[in-house]
Amino acid sequence: MSHLPVTPLSKFGDLLRRYGGVIRAIQWFIILFYLFLLLIPAFMSLPPDKARVLNNLTLFAQFVFWGIWWPFVLLSMVLFSRAWCGIFCPEGALAELASKYGKNKGAPNWLKWNGWPAIAFILTTLYGQMISVYDYAKPALLILGGSTLAAVGIGLFYGRNKRVWCKYLCPVSGVFSLLARLAPLHFKVDEERWKENPEPHLPVPNCAPLVDIRRMHGASSCHTCGRCSGQRDAVRLATRSVNEEIVDYGQEEHNPWLIHLLLFGILGVAIGAFTWTVSPWFIAYKQAIAEWLVVHGVYWPLNQDTPWWLFTHYPENNDAFNWVDGFCVVTYILGHGVVLGSVFSLVMFIASKITQQGKVFYTHFCLALIPLGAAGLFLGLTATTVKLIRQNGFAILWVQDVRLMLLLCSTIWSLILAYRVVKKYPLNLIQQLGSMLCFTFVCAIVFYNWYLMFWGWGHLSLFKLSTLVNLVVYAATLVIFIIIVKLLFKRLNKPLKSKTIKVTQL
Q1: Would the pTM of this model clear 0.90, i.e. be above it?
Q2: Residues spanned by the domain of 321
Q3: In sequence order, what are the residues at sequence separation of 6 or more whose Cβ sits closer than 8 angstroms to the Cβ of residue 308?
């Protein structure tokens, strides 16, 4: 008879199940706060020049959504798995609530297509840049509000007390699925104990994101809501190695669209979306097209008469796209995605050919890029955070050093993952070196793109004496932090004397 030990950490997971009503109350508070910040600023006038975050609701909402909410939701995926989805997400909660009163239809095959999260992420990222979603309230309402309405609409048609939208269509579900694979926390399942079905028999939990709990051995799909905690004495909240899910189970990933999302979306389109505003290449590209149009007597694409819901149009703020601007933004971002994604795919394909391990190795090896992709998303989103903080009078001089530290750490983490993946296959030394060289080349290209954004195009020095000193201090702090966290996790995972714990139904 096998079982998972009861630990202080697993008891916390049981509390999530026992106090589900409290979680619902938290969700309603977040829903109301979310709707308030989303709706009210969209109908207010643009902030005056002297407005600041603390005295203007529009700027406050902008800072909350794009300076705090989204960057740190992504960070939470790496730290706490998908607890945001299961406990805090207003969109998921509304989708589940709508399905409670909906038509309870079965999800059709077209809706279950694996490519929707990747396509939705790329299109949402692109459209957000077209209408400047980070800078204005109406675009935020259009994109975030539109997504919320779509989630409720899907809930009204499909499933009963389920999150069909989150499972198949949410624009960030694929990103969350990838990042959660790095989390040190997850609900561990003992399949043999599940089959034994020991007493007491708890009511079957409602797994809203439609996860096969019995066979779950990762955090990529689980919303960490705690509803299944203690089920059959086989499900416990526990810690794990941050490398476990990728190294030990990455070869079981059979969804090629997740890899496309990683290579073409996170490492391609997202980089283009974050860098075009500071890129001299973009300026040269736009000027070349504009000059060609003028030489040939074509002037209408230079008119700033685009609607705000298609391209940015706020002339009262001296911020309006003409048709050339919009065209260049779209093609520049998509071009980044196609070029970088194709290069990365080709290099990783060459690595798989060198190892002669086929598609399984290709997918497994690509997953090792997740730490670098996660760092890039966080850096790109927090660029808005830094901009807004500086606009409110704070210098934050240490930010460049922290960015460099994050890039270096994520690159090293990806390389370690890649090496451990390589060691799981029967490869000779030449094959190992060849595949690792390919992987290092991909990491170097990604690193170089972020270097250009934060240092190269601004003519800033990447390394200087103060930077090296700060990196040493940050590295020492990080090591101490990791040691403390490991000691804490060790204590939280220490089995209690009693091997069973009473769990009540929601």
Answers
A1: yes
A2: 248-462
A3: 131, 136, 138, 139, 314
